[in-house]
Amino acid sequence: MMRTALGKYSIAGKIGQGAMGEVYKARDTVLNRMVAVKTIAPAAALRWDESLTERFRREAQAAAGLNHPNIITVHDFGEEDGTFYMAMELLEGSDLSEVVRRRALPRLEDRLGVIEQICDGVAFAHAHRVVHRDLKPANIHLLPNGRVKIMDFGLARSGEMDATRSGGILGTPYYMAPEQVRGERTDARSDVFSLGALFYELLSGRRAFPAETIHAVLFQVLEREPEPLEKLDPAISPALAAVVRRALDKAPDQRYQDAGEMREALRGLPMESAPAPSLSLGALESMGAAAGSPPTQSTPTLALSRPFRVTFEREEGGDRVVEVSNPGFSLLDMAQREGIPLFHECGGRARCSTCRVRIVSGAANVQPRTPVEARLASRLGWGDEIRLGCQTRVSGDVAVQRLILDSDDFSLLWFESRQPGAAQETAVAVLSCSLQGFGDFVRKAPPYDVIHLLNRFFLQVGEPVLANGGTIEKYLGEGLVALFGLAGGDAREKCLGAVRAALRMRARMAELESYARKHFGIGLRLGIGLHFGRAVVGPVGHPSRMQITALGDVTTIAGRMVAAGRDSGAQILATEAVINVIEEDVQLGRIVQNEAQDEDQGGWEIIDLRKPDAVFLTQTTFEEVARRKAEAGALFYELLFEIDPGCRALFSATDMRAQAEMLMTMLAAAVQGLDRMEDLRGTLQDLGRRHAGYGVQLKHYDAVEQALLETIRRMIGDAFTLDVRLAWSRIYNDLARIMLEAAETPAV
Fold this sequence. Notes:
Structural class: alpha+beta
Number of domains: 5
Strand content: 15-25%
CATH topology of the largest domain: Transferase(Phosphotransferase), domain 1
């Protein structure tokens, strides 16, 4: 039953429900005025935490001590029958979150007027040594006359006290400063960051850190920079955007030191973007009309005034003609939409030549080669008439012919696309590994069993090499040597790639060791050695059997680490040359001296990475998902359509089983290239433009992230830790950002 009175306040009705209790409209029977009464009951305090009452009292004290026109007025604070209450001025109007949602302030000067008032109120609090610590749109109220009122000082801290528990995280994720996320001490500069996030949203209509899950938001707050304001709205001057950008600096020392300093920076802007002195009444009165007008979203469009035709000649059953109205589609896109079997073994990433076609006619309507296609065409010696279907776009009538028609041709082109590159002298990280305990098995086992088990071993250890940018230089009976860094990168990238591969090899070997014990009754153990140094690398051998080879002693030294590890029992040993590069990135164990060598070739045992590594965690967990890829693909689309039913229309004419298979292929390719993001850029840009052509919008990317994270969570269960969630969110946002940028810039 609702209370009828609290102290001297007669309750008229409930007007709100908060996290700590209820808010009532009430009459002050002594002063005969209407007020808002906020309550907290003992049961609520017990359900939340023992300091909640102190937090409630602190809100009353902080707000009551701040007499400013832009801060809500607190009249009274008390307790009756175990219920704490606070009486404050009764506000009409709406909070800022509703104003932003309805786009009720279309004029920039009106939004700037609100911003200045908020700065005024917070600056006054800072001048009185009060830090709000929970500034967000829901805590900013706009009265019908345009006056701003700042509310809810429940997390406020004065200069004399800090009632927050040590290490606790209090606040609202979208607006929390990085130091607040980390549970560190906060001050006025933390409020400045929150103001930056709040003003970013008010100015642009979108959040500065727009992820959907809490973990993804926290990651963005710590690691990501918001999209530039001036890019979202050309009406926002670079000077105004720079003020907000400084407020959102990750380092507190680089921000404005309090809201007063930020207010003065805003007042000092050029006149064309200076804040208006007050908010116009008409802006708020128009909220009702604005509510019926949903915000428009601009979607990149590449539509043509008239369709053109692409003819795939000599197909089974005759020529196939495709009507095209969007030049953003590649020839591969067109073929897939029409069910034409244009091979794309690498997933359409310009890493193979299986989707190549011959331009039969209409060459003038074919757009120039992309850089990745040009490199491949140069290496394979193609003429102008041979093009990659995944990279080629056309702007008029064209006739083409597929060149890969059957599995025999496919196999030949697979070999052709993997010929070794040119010779070079470069610094490389070398990984040498050996299957220890295999020799006795070779002497007594049937030949087929030997080859069978050895091939299983190379599958287990080879995948991590390829996934981390490595190249298998040679096989050594029961071992292999791999090189990292042939495609470029700095020393740290090369060495970390080798370490990631070594750690994944060690983990994957557990499965093979169990298999060998169960089926062959033998014990196996993996030994790994790592070294970093310069070598001459290039294709060596008979023209029909050339392979990449490293000349120098780098592979020999890595092999010595394998031998030293075998003698000492250490599984992964690295030379000083490696440790000097990545010492801060890895957990080290003991130092092992190689007594058999005259020179100092001691090794350092590598236990693990020192902190969670997004690439490593993503690749590790994807291995578990990939084992059930059909199930994972089907689950992803089931979740996607549940999260955003509107997405289903984008797949109305699609074979969802084939779509799920293609999704997992693309995801596998992306995961393998995570430590070489620049190599993926062209493919991702192409994919982003294609998606824009299909009608994909920003909201769909958000839904995909939610569905992807939930799919992985269900697939790997308890292994889906906070670190794993943040890693996947980081990687996804990296990929999505490249795609979205490309979607906004049509291919030329």
